[in-house]
Amino acid sequence: MTKPFELHEVTVDGAVLRYVDVGQGDPLVLLHGWPESHAAWRHQIGPLSRSARVIAPDWQGWGASARDLRLSCDYDTEVDRIGRMFDALNLDRVDLACHDYGGFLGLGFVQRYPERVRRFAILNSRAHRTFTTPYYQLFGLISALARRPLLRPILTARTIRIVHRLGLAQFVRNGSFDTERLDAYLDFLDTREGRRWYAHFWAGYSVRVRPELAAGLGAVRCPTSVIWGDQDPAIPFRYAEDLAAAIPAADLVRIHGGHFIMEQRPADVTAALQAWLRRPAVITRNAAHHTESRLR
């Protein structure tokens, strides 16, 4: 069991955001996905903190951060909230590594605010596309239920935790996390406040493609690493290949594993991130390259 990290707190958009802050050096922000917390990076934080100041937030509404229903969860607000978090933490320019929902937001952020991102890494995220058809339909249905007051009680019922535990049990079986870690991710659904937040989040979330993200890939000029578990049925490896082909300074790391790749294959992900951080932060026009490495 990885020892828990101390959590600090700061106020962002009027709500408490809690975060890990360890190590010294250039700031490295690790942004988790759904339904996780900073603990998604628990295997990487220690090793990476030996050469960087690692900041791993519980994104607003998740983990130990506040679930404030006044916070908007629409895409544009969430992307800009990353910048407001940086401001609250007095961070000017960072290395930014993001997974899943965090990667979806992070891609938008690096396109809007390139001057604030020194290097960018993205792991198993819908990013510039959306989910494969079965998951698109599932998440689209959840979002539609959340937007309809008469149907929203389906998402705020106590049974929603059981549904999620069953759905995520496959990641216990493949070794991404144990039952204790899964319970920790889903504990917020045990409370009425947590279930209300859950519905609130999905009411603001959209599964539709945002075409500006694909259109802007060529403008991402910072050193980028696309790190992907290639057994992800919701977000397949071809999405990673798209990103690596379109982002001028991208390399591609293929890891044999599923969606929660930094939990399932922690050593491989840590090594990939360490290699990414060794890349020069300033690139020239001739430095852009596309390479693929495979970790199996």
From TrEMBL:
Coiled-coil residue spans: none
InterPro entries: AB_hydrolase_1 (IPR000073), AB_hydrolase_fold (IPR029058), AB_hydrolase_sf (IPR050266), Epox_hydrolase-like (IPR000639)
Residue span, AB hydrolase-1 domain: 27-266
Matches recorded under PANTHER family: CIS-3-ALKYL-4-ALKYLOXETAN-2-ONE DECARBOXYLASE (PTHR43798:SF24), MONOACYLGLYCEROL LIPASE (PTHR43798)
Name the UniProt record assigns to this protein: Pimeloyl-ACP methyl ester carboxylesterase
